[in-house]
Amino acid sequence: MSEISFNSIFDGVSLAVHAAFPAPMQVHGGEVKQGLKPGDFNVTMPTASHAQEVGSRYRRSPTLDVIYYPKRGNAECYAVADRLTAVLGSITTPEGDVVHATSCEWTVTGGVLHVLVTYDHFVRVPQEHIMMETLKIEQEG
């Protein structure tokens, strides 16, 4: 098992969406200035946390927003949401690690589908042990 990074989860979600919804649908990542078309996806990571639990063990909680721009309205959004919740329940990172979603919710806002998925997991972060300097004791006399 490799170290699971925020980027590997982002990539795993993007790959899962791409595999479930092949061309002509496109999967974009992050900020897209232009070029989005109805039927396209955009994957973003609006929030993530990294909190120490015990010692070198940390809980990471990245939340990804899989955004879908429908061609034909809300009914299409509902069908895509149903499929995405199944596809994103467990993802495989490019390194081969399987990560399970700990929460998944979706909403349609302004005719656009947003599926928010969180992948809580634990990592170990090596701790740097800083040794005290050796003091020289000088004796008088």
The total beta strand count reads: 10
Please state roughly what percent of the residues sit in beta strands, choosing from under 5%, 5-15%, 15-25%, 25-35%, 35-45% or over 45%.
25-35%
How do the strands line up in the largest sheet? Answer: 1-2-5-9-8
Label the overall shape. elongated
Quote the average pLDDT.
91
Task: State the helicity in percent bands.
Answer: 10-25%
What descriptive keywords fit this protein?
single chain, alpha+beta, 5-stranded mixed beta sheet, 3-stranded antiparallel beta sheet, 2 helices, 10 strands, elongated
Give a written overview of the molecule:
It is built from two helices and ten strands, in the order H-E-E-E-E-E-H-E-E-E-E-E. By secondary structure, it is an alpha+beta fold. The strands form three sheets. A five-stranded mixed beta sheet has the order 1-2-5-9-8, with helices on one face. Strands 3-4-10 form a three-stranded antiparallel beta sheet, with no helix packed on it. Strands 6-7 form a two-stranded antiparallel sheet. A hairpin with a 2-residue loop joins strand 3 and strand 4. The model has no long low-confidence stretch (mean pLDDT 91).
